Amino acid sequence: MEDLFAPDYFAKKLNRLAAQTDSKSFEPWEEARARYVEQRIEPLLDRYRQSDQDWFSDFNRRRGVCLHSSDLIFKLQRLNPHLFVQQQVNFPDDWGLYLDCGGRIQYLSAVPKGWMTEFSYGIMDDRNLPVEERRGWRTVVLFCLMKGALTWTQVLKSFGDPKDGYNDTRWQEATRDIRHGEDHIWFRNQRNLHE
To answer: Cα(16)–Cα(12) distance, rounded to whole angstroms?
Structure first.
C-alpha cells in the first residue's frame, strides 16, 4: 500500500502514468495551444469586438479631411459662444469641451490636441482588441449635437455631410434620429439641462 502523504507520492504517480500512456495520444504543444485559442479564447474575445472593427481600426480609411483642434474649437465657438475649453487634469493630451448653460457647466467631449482625423479610429492590441480610441472631429461634433449644444442645421451648414463613401454610413446611423425629428431632440435636451 502506498503512503499518500509521502513527499514523492505525486512524482511517482506522475511517472507511472506517463510510462503507461502512449506517446501518440498526445498532440504537440503548439497544435494543442492553437486549437484551444481558436475554440475557447477567440469566441470570448469576439464579444469585445465591433462588427466593423476592421474598418474602424484602419487609419487610412478613417482619416478623411484632417482638421486642427484649434480650428475646430474656433468653428464650434462661432456656432455657440457658450462653449469653452479647459485643460483636462487626467488626460494631458486632450482639451475638455464644456458648455456654460445658465450658470451650469456641462461636459460635452474630449478634444485631442493637434491634428485630428475626420473620423474616430481605434488602436488595437496583438489580439485585435480595442485599446484606445483616437477621437475624430466629427465625433466631437456629434457629441455637441446629442447634448443640445448645436443644432443639425448649424452642423450641416458648417461641416456638411461626409462624401467619401466609406465612412458616411456610420455618420448617417449616428445622426439618423437628429436628422429626422431634430427639433424634438434638441428641445428635450435643453429642457433636461435646465430642469
So the answer is: 6
Question: CB 19: neighbour CB atoms within 10 A?
Answer: 7
Residues 6+ apart with CB under 8 A from 67: 115, 116, 118, 137
CA distance 71 to 1: 84
Residues 142/126, Cβ–Cβ less than 8 Å = no
Please check whether residue 116 is in contact with residue 135, taking contact to mean a CB–CB distance below 8 angstroms: yes
Phi, psi of 112 (to 5 degrees): -60, 140
Q: What is the pLDDT of residues 128-180, one digit of tens each?
A: 888 888 999 999 999 998 888 888 888 889 998 887 777 787 788 888 877 77
pTM: 0.72
Residue written as grid cell 474649437: 73
User: How is the chain split into domains, by residue range?
Assistant: 48-194
